[in-house]
């Protein structure tokens, strides 16, 4: 196996792990649905930073963080990615708390389409014929959903666009995965902490006793936020953007299963047609990826 093949395969494993963790986020954040979404996001940011800085120190990456902060090009990238990922978090938690897990799954099914388009248009990546067919099937599946909804699915669109752009910028940003994520959360930490103080988080707010279990769940949200993002950022630097795009079907499939079988959200024949197109596209893409050397 060549060094390039080894790098691609390790990236594939990192990506699958990240998307698998994200796939069970509805189950976790449903337990926090009584907490306002902005408070949950603020806790995610603050606790993520408290987890990441010691981790960076243990891995000897504090120097990389300092270089990223002082490098103008890096900090410009990270200012944008921090805004994109925090928006994505907020909209997703809002969707879960409202019982819109099925629409959030639609958003994350649409994200690979955004990634494929960005890969072709921005990075000059090209799809082979079978991959193109799988892409068209996925487009058809998403189109069925959009038509059936009878309205613009804002939650799905925002989730797809913000995470698709985040993936592109993290792939091209001149900063390592852990250092970049640490700087992103550092950028967001001050306003997040300020909001928690304003909302009463420092004196009888959600973390300090409204529901006792929150004292465990809110800090865990930070760890669960940081770990898959570190894995994702590392995978993004090793894989083609089109490969990342189709790996992302793992997360919305898990969201879909939870929405339908655990939370009993409405699932019609139209939904079945839509998801069937998308899954067929994924199968075709996986067959083509298995034939190629570079995943």
Topology, pairings included?
Elements (H helix, E strand, L loop, with lengths): L2 H21 L1 H6 L6 H22 L3 H9 L1 H26 L3 H21 L7 H21 L4 H19 L4 H22 L7 H5 L3 H23 L4 H7 L2 H13 L6 H23 L4
Molecular structure report:
Helix content is 81%, strand content 0%. The protein has one domain (3-291). It has 295 residues and is an all-alpha fold. Helix 1 (3-23) runs parallel beside helix 13 and helix 6 (101-121) packs across helix 8. The longest helix is centred in the N-terminal third of the chain and has 26 residues, at 72-97.
Key words describing this protein structure:
14 helices; 295 residues; mainly alpha
| Low-confidence spans | none
Tell me the distance between the termini: 13 Å
Average pLDDT number: 84
Q: Tally the helices.
A: 14
Number of strands: 0
Biggest sheet details: none
What's the multimeric state?
single chain
Class based on secondary structure composition and strand pairing? mainly alpha
Q: Looking at the structure, what is the overall shape?
A: globular
List the domain count as a whole number.
1
Radius of gyration, taken over Cα atoms and rounded to an integer in Å: 19 Å
**Percent range for β-strand residues:** under 5%
- Helix-strand pattern, N to C? HHHHHHHHHHHHHH
In percent, how helical is the residue content? over 70%
């Amino acid at each position: 196996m060549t060094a390039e093949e080894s790098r691609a395969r390790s990236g594939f494993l990192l990506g699958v792990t990240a998307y698998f963790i994200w796939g069970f986020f509805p189950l976790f954040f449903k337990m926090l649905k009584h907490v306002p979404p902005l408070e949950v996001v603020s806790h995610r940011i603050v606790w993520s930073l408290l987890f990441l800085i010691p981790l960076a120190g243990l891995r000897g990456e504090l120097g990389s963080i300092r270089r990223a902060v002082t490098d103008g090009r890096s900090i410009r990238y990270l200012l944008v990615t921090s805004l994109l990922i925090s928006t994505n978090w907020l909209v997703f938690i809002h969707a879960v708390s409202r019982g819109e897990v099925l629409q959030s799954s639609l958003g994350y099914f649409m994200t690979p389409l955004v990634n494929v388009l960005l890969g072709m248009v921005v990075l000059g990546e090209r799809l082979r014929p079978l991959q193109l067919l799988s892409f068209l099937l996925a487009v058809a599946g998403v189109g069925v959903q959009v038509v059936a909804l009878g309205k613009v699915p804002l939650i799905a669109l925002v989730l797809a666009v913000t995470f698709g752009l985040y993936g592109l910028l993290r792939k091209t940003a001149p900063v390592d995965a852990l250092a970049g994520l640490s700087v992103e959360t550092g950028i967001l930490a001050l306003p997040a902490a300020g909001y928690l103080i304003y909302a009463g988080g420092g004196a009888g707010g959600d973390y300090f006793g409204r529901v006792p279990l929150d004292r465990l769940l809110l800090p865990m949200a930070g760890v669960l936020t940081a770990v898959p993002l570190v894995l994702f950022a590392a995978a993004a630097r090793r894989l083609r953007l089109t490969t990342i795009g189709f790996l992302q079907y793992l997360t919305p499939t898990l969201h879909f299963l939870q929405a339908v079988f655990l939370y009993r959200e409405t699932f019609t024949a139209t939904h079945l047609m839509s998801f069937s197109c998308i899954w067929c596209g994924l199968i075709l893409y996986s067959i083509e990826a298995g034939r190629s050397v570079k995943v």
